Hints:
Elements: E1 34-38, E2 53-57, H1 64-72, E3 81-85, H2 91-103, E4 107-110, E5 112-116, E6 125-129, E7 133-135, H3 138-142, E8 148-149, E9 155-158, H4 177-196, H5 202-208, E10 217-218, H6 221-226, E11 273-277, E12 280-291, E13 294-305, E14 311-320, E15 334-339, E16 342-354, E17 359-369, H7 370-376, E18 383-390, E19 393-400, H8 404-415
Amino acid sequence: xxxxxxLTVAPAFAALVFLLPAVAQAGDRALPMRFDLRAxxxxxxxxxxxxLWISAAGAITADSARDFxxxxxxxxxxxxxxxxxxxxxxxxxxxxxxxxxxxxxLNTTVGRVVDLPAAANTEPRTAVLPRAxxxxxxxxxLLAGVQRTVPAEARVMVHQIWLGDRRDDPTxxxxxxxxxxxxxxxxxxxxRYTAEMGASVDLLDLALRIPPWEPMHALTRDELHSTRLxxxxxxxxxxxxxxxxxxxxxxxxPVNRVTDGARASAISAQSWAVADRDGTTTLAxxxxxxxxxxxxxxxxxxxxxxxxxxxxxxSYVEHRRNGEHLALPDRLGAVTLRVGGTAAALKVxxxxxxxxPDELVTYxxxxxxxxxxxxxxxxxxxxxxxxxxxxxxVTVIRFGNTGALTNLPRLSASCGKGIGDxxxxxxxxxxxxxxxx
Length: 437
């Protein structure tokens, strides 16, 4: 849900059917949404009842509804199906686009329209590939279809709306009253639109549970139908949650730089900062621990000097409690840190239940390459992901590098080592395009 991504108008033609050049590839999903009209091929191959497909691939902007109107002008789109492949985008833009789609009584689905090789002296043919994603505000555009189909291979993913200029590190920012008014206003617009399109408010409830630091929630087949987002009756299961699989990694040696005296409240959630731990200089950050928005505790991530110049010692200190719907596990089984293309398993040194207060306290530690930490702390918005696994539960938390650029040099100086590789990391896609406009 981004703020306006700029002005891009898809070409509009007056003819009924045009077989246009190949549609945008998956790498173009970040570009403003483009609309292209397709037909399966020669009409005799489908007894004169060919379905018209409208490829709608790319980010939804404030101009998408206007672009769609220009595209539709002069065309007979009766009975056509909009094929969506999008990371989402603007709240206002998505609602306006959805209303224009409903006015034309079009159908919607999730997929990618591709051109097929044509035999000699035959018309070009196209097909819809079902393996595609409809993320964030795209789900509400999907809702605009009179008939809505979600193939078993496709995913529809939702999360909270958020301010676009603060989505990279949401806990690092202070929010003004005007910010809250903006978000609340758009939630009201979404609720009204959802009811207008004939869907259940449970769809909005599902989305609003997922904070921006968690992976998006992929709707299950049951959820697609109970919310009335899909009107088809396919029964193939879809994964309920999007989470990266832990990568195999060598078990690192445990470190002892953080002791039982570590207290989460001593470290800020708003920024990476230099902290003194028992006379040791560290770089540390605090963060809430949630599962699909349910608050179950908090954790500290602490970076300290490692042996030699090639690594930093990283410690994870978690305090976990019972949630309203989630019970405490007996112990935490695994902790994995991911930054860029690097995955490091942190060895769980202890994971013990305490009675006062009733919580599970876990300590894990390991080594992470200095180059990975240096790249994370480089200029620009970069993310770090912490994954935990326990019996029946997985948490995936992403947070940004606010304060790391300033404070990593102080830690590096205390270690007597270079900062490491400061090359830019490719931004990870977690949480989708999550802004309120």
